């Protein structure tokens, strides 16, 4: 593969996915050095080459050419190899491709980004603004649906930059904003998206995709308030998915560990499908767990919310857990978890008297590295559980069975990270 140059971007940037996918299609290698948004893009050296101070940014292999803006970088990379046809076959195709790129980056991304930024904590939660964005999201989706209904690709008969660009925006939409109920209205768009995002090239960069179940407009915890509001375009860290690296490279150091005989995916299925308490490993998930678990390969961790006094209602607490779990997407492959809303039902179910308690089962010892995938990880306190200790075991089982009693509070709701 010819090296086209260097793409500067923080890992897991949906904008970089577009550039990296295009380069891969065109048989071009891009170096992706370590890059931390907020520092690397602010150095005098970076700014001298890229005055926008934003990522992604491209530098040619001979270091003489510098380019910013995702649309420009991906167009440039697409233009370096005619044979793949990523820019179409005619000036008309090129015009149509530009049309779809502009549609994706404006008509689609702007309304989608509004609720997404609220959920990430980059802008304050604003229900009126969300309500105003919804019809715009639906309108953009309806256009896409009507066009893609009878087509495989947006322009011509083969994949082009138009498809990759629009799919990169749909990834943000489907992960954070457009939930299963809304997706059901746009089956052709979902089909189109899957055919692009999951294809043999794009999937290397788009990574595992967590389709949002239910959208809830809640902000993450405290520390997010410190995010400068003017950074509206800043890509949220939780857009995290496997690093934009070639597939042959391990996505996570945990991939280098030998396979554990305790298969996390099998455990998730057992947990979801079996009753929890009981003694038969074929029928009861806790029995299955004890029959199969390999403590040397995993860490079982207790987590508790630090700001329980701020929880004003059960649904808020549950949204808090749901958001946290959604933002753990990049680590989901290596962990399983249950978070419970505990309420003081004995005191009459007083709203606001709730707390959040939960358990993660994490591959390896370094559980914090996995949990840090969620930008709001510091809103919780963590401590490893020793399942040979009776109290720890009781806590673990109480959480798993959703029958925990903690500080006189009983479980009223919860979420599962699976
Ligand atoms: N219009 C630009 C937006 C780039 C952008 O906002 N990038 C974010 C990271 S995903 C960024 O660099 N934010 C830092 C900042 O705004 O200072 C593009 O499409 O490339």
Fold and architecture overview:
There is one protein chain. The protein is of the alpha+beta class. It folds into 3 domains: 2-84, Glutaredoxin, CATH 3.40.30.10; 91-239, Glutathione S-transferase Yfyf (Class Pi), Chain A, domain 2 (Up-down Bundle); 253-417, Alpha-Beta Plaits (2-Layer Sandwich), CATH 3.30.70.1010. The chain is 39% helix and 14% strand. The protein contains 14 helices and 10 strands. The chain has a 6-stranded antiparallel β-sheet. Strands 2-1-3-4 form a 4-stranded mixed β-sheet, covered by helices on one side. Strand 1 (2-8), helix 1 and strand 2 form a beta-alpha-beta unit. Helix 6 (161-177) packs across helix 8. The longest helix is centred in the first third of the chain and has 30 residues, at 91-120. It is globular, with a radius of gyration of 23 Å. The protein starts with a strand and ends with a strand. The relative contact order is 0.10. The model is unreliable at 224-248 (pLDDT under 50). Residues 13, 15, 37, 41, 53-55, 69-70, 231, 233-235 line the site of glutathione. One of its GO terms (cellular component) is nucleus. GO terms for molecular function: translation elongation factor activity.
